[in-house]
Amino acid sequence: MTATTASQDFLHRDTVHRLTRTIGRVLLYLLLIVMSLWFLAPLFWMFMSSLMPLDQVGVFPVQWIPRVWMPENYTLALEFWNFGITFRNTMFIAIVSLVGDIGSCTLVAYGFARFRFPFRDTLFLILLATLMLPFAVRLIPVYAAYDAIGWIDTFYPLIVPNFFGNAFYIFICRQFFLGIPQDLLDAAKIDGASEVRIFTQVMIPLAKPAIVVIAILSFQNSWNDFLGPLIYLKDPDLHTLAIGLYKFTSLPGQGGIYNQQMAASTMMVLPVLIVFFLFQKQFIQGANISGLKG
Amino acid sequence: MATAFGSQFSALRGRRRERWRDLSPMRKREAKMGLLFITPWIIGVLLFSLFPFVASFLLSFTKYNIVAPPKWVGMEHYVHIFTDDPLFLKSLRNTGVYVGGSVAIRIVLGFALALLLNTKVRFLGLWRTLFYLPSVVPIVALSVIWLYVLNARAGLLNSFLYAIGLPRFRWFADPDIAMIGYLIMSTTWVGVTMVIFLAGLQGIPEEYYDAAKIDGANVFQRLLRVTIPLMTPTIYLNILINIINAFQVFTQVFIMTDGQGGPRDATRVYVLHLFDHAFQYLPPQMGYSSALAWILFMIIFVFTAVIVTTSQRWVFYQGGETD
């Protein structure tokens, strides 16, 4: 008798347990869906309103589906917005900066990771400390220096610094180099390879994953940069996408054409999203290195 | 970074300093190669960190408008800032609201989302991607979008509040709540913090939870006694990074208020105030702006120092952790 009640009781408890578990799971997924909507709704609305007629954008409460689909918003936006020139300028800056970042950061990271020299650890600590220096402190002297050597209204201020190493990218790359087994280098040395050859033919190929992370972060940085182009590039023919979009939305009299502004925003966002979807893993790795070991 | 800093410091303390003349010829060769490899950074740090650092300090004691050479005025700017610039305190307060609010949002919401995703949830990669996605969007585009999300008349947020029966707000017109709009916008970047926390949570060995379960700890006890203590290094680091970044909030406010910090300076954040003096005033007041920049640097420095020193009391490092 007692045995039966015990097993019934056990059965009962098991169902209750399973029920609370199921409810918990349903609530969990509901919560995740709500949060996704919170994060994605602004972007989704950007895209949908870029295809709406102007009067529909100002309707309250917000409407999601265009009454009439108007892809011509994009061509109209292109007319106002110097997309061709700004796109070319942005690509140029981004690619040259990327080459500079990868070249300088792999070199410096290798130096820190694989050689012993006096004050190495002190220097590396200084490198990490520069990450905490607010950009506002650098802004004025650097601007004044560029002004003095006539670099205002050129791409140099946006490109040249990238050839002298970025503390954060150097850190990422150094972490990676530290993880490469010393035996591999010793083997190359015994085979008579010079330091330069070891670097270019052994380390660089091995460091490809870290280089991809740096490349993505660097490209994203140039593509998204606003303050640099804002103060250094006054000539409209030198403007980047970020400045072009800002000018397009802040021109007097342009304040009202929301649908075309959203079309322009979509055009600027889309390439970044494509890169993000292609290289998600590297984006997440980049964030993680900055947060955990970084 | 926290662990990196820690191990760097201990490396400095532990080792006897090596002197150049004590090195063997082979070690000298190695040291020369190493220094050669890091030369780009050494030049870079002198040009783009040390030079501006010293120069902006010196400029903060001068009147400087770029065109004419700087003119020494001593402490004048600092005296003026603390006694006769009402916008200094106002902008500092606005930035303070942003720092407090946005850091709290990013840490609490980021941690909560990471906990949700760490419950053996299905499609983990998909959720992570969706939550992370807004933070890769260029800030100019985000600002343009959020201008209309927070639009008083027909914005997304007011439509949402209306739909669930809450009152609507005039986000950009009402000085009392204008900064709140930027705090709501700052949820955009919660995904970055979440991804970092998630990686930390995934690194906690399952055995710790099993042991706690055997001891009869429930979900909340496990969270409080196992998860959070083990996560303190990551939490500490994220608080530090986010505070440093939040003090420098500028771009979205500049774009969304067209460089004005309106309504009536209610969103004039500190860096915008500084930027105004250097790049929007005619003639430019670069010296005054440098003084403002140095005050910001000191504030960030003090915050960092306080957090770093108090961290020893609440940050828990597992034994044997290495870089």
Oligomer: heterodimer
The arrangement of helices and strands of chain A along the chain is HHHHHHHHHHHHHHH
Strand content of chain A: under 5%
CATH domain class of the largest domain in chain B? Mainly Alpha
As residue ranges, the low-confidence spans of chain A are none
Principal-axes geometry of chain A comes out as flat
Q: What's the main sheet of chain B like?
A: 2 strands, antiparallel
CATH topology of the largest domain in chain A: MetI-like fold
Cα radius of gyration of chain B in angstroms: 24 Å
Identify the CATH class of the largest domain in chain A: Mainly Alpha
Q: Given the helix and strand composition of chain B, which structural class is it? A: mainly alpha
Q: Summarize the helix and strand pattern of chain B as letters.
A: HHEEHHHHHHHHHHHH
Mean pLDDT of chain A: 88
How many helical elements of chain A? 15
Query: Distance between termini of chain B?
Result: 10 Å
Number of extended strands of chain B: 2
Distance between the termini of chain A: 64 Å
- Helix- and strand-based class of chain A? mainly alpha
Largest sheet of chain A: none
Let me know the number of strands of chain A.
0
Secondary structure elements and their pairing?
The complex is a heterodimer of chains A (294) and B (323).
Chain A: H1 2-49, H2 54-57, H3 72-80, H4 83-114, H5 120-130, H6 135-148, H7 156-159, H8 167-178, H9 182-190, H10 195-206, H11 208-224, H12 227-232, H13 241-250, H14 258-278, H15 280-291
Helix pairs in contact in A: 3-14, 4-8, 4-11, 4-13, 9-10, 11-15, 13-14
Chain B: H1 2-14, H2 25-59, E1 62-63, E2 71-72, H3 76-84, H4 86-117, H5 124-132, H6 139-149, H7 156-163, H8 178-185, H9 190-202, H10 206-214, H11 219-246, H12 251-256, H13 270-280, H14 286-314
Antiparallel strand pairs in B: 1-2
Helix pairs in contact in B: 4-8, 4-9, 4-11, 4-13, 9-11, 11-14, 13-14
Describe what this molecule looks like in 3D.
- The complex is a heterodimer of chains A (294) and B (323).
- Chain A is built from 15 helices and no strands.
- By secondary structure, chain A is mostly helical.
- Chain A has two domains: 2-71; 73-291, MetI-like fold (Orthogonal Bundle), CATH 1.10.3720.10.
- The longest helix of chain A is centred in the first third of the chain and has 48 residues, at 2-49.
- Chain A is flat and about 70 Å long.
- Chain B is mainly α and 323 residues long.
- Chain B has two domains: 21-77, no CATH class; 78-314, Orthogonal Bundle (MetI-like fold), CATH 1.10.3720.
- Helices cover 68% and strands 1% of the residues of chain B.
- Chain B has a two-stranded antiparallel sheet.
- The longest helix of chain B is centred in the N-terminal third of the chain and has 35 residues, at 25-59.
- The model of chain B has no long low-confidence stretch (mean pLDDT 89).
- Chains A and B meet through helix 1, helix 4, helix 5, helix 6 and helix 8 of A and helix 1, helix 2, helix 4, helix 5 and helix 6 of B.
